[in-house]
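hi! just following up on the protien thing from before. the input was this:
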Amino acid sequence: MENPKLHELLQKALALPLDPGVYIMYNARGVVIYVGKAKALKNRVCQYFRAGSDHAPKVARMVANVDRFEYIVCGSEFEALVLEASLIKQYQPKYNILLKDDKGYHYIRVSPYPWRRIAAVKQVEEDGARYLGPYYSGYVVGQSVDQACKIFGLPTCNRRFPQDIGKGRPCLNRSIGICSGPCTGRVPLADYEESVDRALAFLNGGQREAVRQLQADMEQASEALQFEKAARLRDRINAIKKMADKQTIVSAGVKDQDVIAYAATPEKGCFEVFHFTNGSLSDRAHYFVEPEGDEDPLGAFILQYYWQDHPVPAQITLHRLPADADRLAEWLRAKRGKAVRLHVPERGDQRQLVEMCLSNAEERLINTAGRKSREESALEELAALLRLPAPPRRIESYDISHTAGDEMVAGMVVFAGARPSKRDYRQFKVRHTFGMDDTASMAEVVARRMEEYHQAAQQGKTDGFGALPDLILLDGGLGQLHAVLPVLAAAGVQVPTFGMVKDSRHHTRAIVGAQGEIEIKANRSVFAFVSGIQDEVHRFAITFHRKRSSGRLTRSTLLAIPGVGPKRAAALLKTLGSVQAVAAADEEQLQTVPGMNRAAAAAVWAHYHGAENS
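and the predicted 3d structure came back as:
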């Protein structure tokens, strides 16, 4: 699509001075869409608007959306470089290389006693757990937690203890010796908690302090003739040392440096960053970008990366020098307060580090391209299976979550191009449906979604609720489907809609349409894709439900029952295990709970199964 204002923009560009400076492109809504720097403003800006210019796809899209531009003359190219970086950070223009620096802070979560679990998380919640941190590097936190769990044999699976002890076979981690296997029931709680304490000491004190303490404990156990315990401690010492040997990567005498490499295809580029501290790899990160044609992506990346408060090391090792190497070095020196070396090694260990960094960037591009190809294939096969006119680019999926009809909520997840679009996820509180009626709740939620669509469309919005999906997938069977189809018809919306049916083990089994069930297990890519959607919408809905009902579940259900006070509610939960189990129990089972009598049992049963809930 050619910009109708191209001639007008070119005439304005021809009047620019030949001085260094910064130019700012705006779209028709007055939004900054691109910021660039130039040694000579006139020459650079005119290149965008000359008829017949052969631009890269991203640049061509940007030019097609330019409505006007402004410029700022600078005293030098260095001033232009610094001003460009400042304006990019301020406006976050759509067509610049933008580094999504979403690191924030990271924490190590230790769940409450007993059977504590250690995990890496990105935020602190009021859930009774203990949190260590904050830490800046998610890579370091993830690696440290992974090491601690492997060394001290702690589980990383989704099983819950003690509920899942003795249920099912141990996983592969138990077989290969990196988990002690508390799920088997053969690990005493005291031994398990001791392992957690040692893992936390390892995380807090580091490898050296952990080895020193373990050696002292091993000698003490040996003197006390506790040879099995001493052997376990010896194995943990060896595991720590082995892990340390694997991690250490000597960087040829340069203690502190960053290694940066860039790999690109015509469609996508990837920057890989290795951060070395004291000669060892201490952090790493990668950033995907869209190439900008004739712009130098390496220089733009370095400027933005260190502008985002990443510490500037004494040496930045690169696979090639950026176009503005001298001015970048000047800016980096001013930011660090000391000299900074931009180094391109030709041979030796430093060259090997650069090659390793570059190969990682290339590998990420290959994997991304492969994943994109698989995702496109899954969408095409899904369209063929459901007889859709084209592969669905936007898929919305809905699920209802509640506890015996209490705190009824719904989650809506969106998949765009076969990948989750989390900014489009939405949560609903079910307002007008009561009792355990999932089908009516689903109809209510979809009706409200369509109301939001019409309101957004009237306001001219085409994103968020203003975007209609190409396909709707409901977590449920024919009941949910038959409840939703009339809602869509009443809203004047024609969107292919299907249900996702689960088997007795709560796993995806098939897709159901108005004409009946459609088998998907024979098609592996479609089965995996639909299963992923169903798992994601279930996770999203149940997380919202748990958040709303946390701390209020017993108060809103059990304590609302006539004749049930705090003691009886506690006894019901202790004996039966959960509110769901209480709701499912018959009157005879309820009477066996300590403190319950016939009248109280009848009241509980009537609360969940009486005429008012039918």
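The radius of gyration is 30 Å.
Confidence is low (pLDDT under 50) at residues 245-252, 551-556.
cheers
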